[in-house]
Amino acid sequence: MQNVFLTSDHHFGHRHIIDYESRPFEDAEQMNEALIERWNAVVGPKDRVLHLGDFSFLNLEKTRAIVSRLNGSKQLILGNHDRGRSRSWWLDAGFDEVSEYPIVYGGFFLLSHEPMYVNKHMPYVNIHGHIHGQRYASPQYVNVSVELWDYKPVSFETIKASVVPGEEQ
């Protein structure tokens, strides 16, 4: 069975994110290795990962080297820091699918990099990244930035169980 995971805001190669977000790493190289190790600790080779943006600040060769070390098939929804590169650049880097826009997943979940407006009358949950260690109080928003999930992808089943009444973890 294929498991589905979501994550965002790895910022591979971005040394300043360590200070900006108080990440527990000494430098970008240590951070990169820890993020790869934590990804592979939960994601298997046959699993699927939906990455909600801000993946890498590295060049194509170094980004490709990281993507090739990560378990699972990988889909990228472009984040604000990914948009300076074309969709084909990200495909060349090793992503199986790349979306320039948010997508609806499972008929009920809006997957986006930045939080999208949803209100209590809308039947959607917005799974997003971008705001790193912050959370919205509403259960209609789930932030999958690595800072909130021990720097690991989180399973879709875990998210679904946290927001859909009657779902078990």
Q: What would you say this structure looks like, in words?
A:
The chain is an alpha/beta fold and 169 residues long. The chain has one domain (4-163): 4-Layer Sandwich (Purple Acid Phosphatase, chain A, domain 2), CATH 3.60.21.10. The chain contains 5 helices and 9 strands, in the order βααβαβαββββββα. It has helices at 16-20, 28-42, 60-69, 87-92, 156-163; strands at residues 4-7, 48-51, 73-77, 97-99, 103-105, 109-111, 125-128, 141-143, 154-155. It is globular and about 45 Å long. The mean pLDDT is 94. This is Phosphoesterase.
CATH architectural category: 4-Layer Sandwich
- Overall strand count: 9
How many separate domains make up the residues?
1
| Biggest sheet overview | 5 strands, mixed
Strand and helix order: EHHEHEHEEEEEEH
| Category by helix and strand content | alpha/beta
Under the CATH scheme, which class? Answer: Alpha Beta
Poorly predicted ranges (pLDDT <50, ≥5 residues)?
none
Net shape: globular
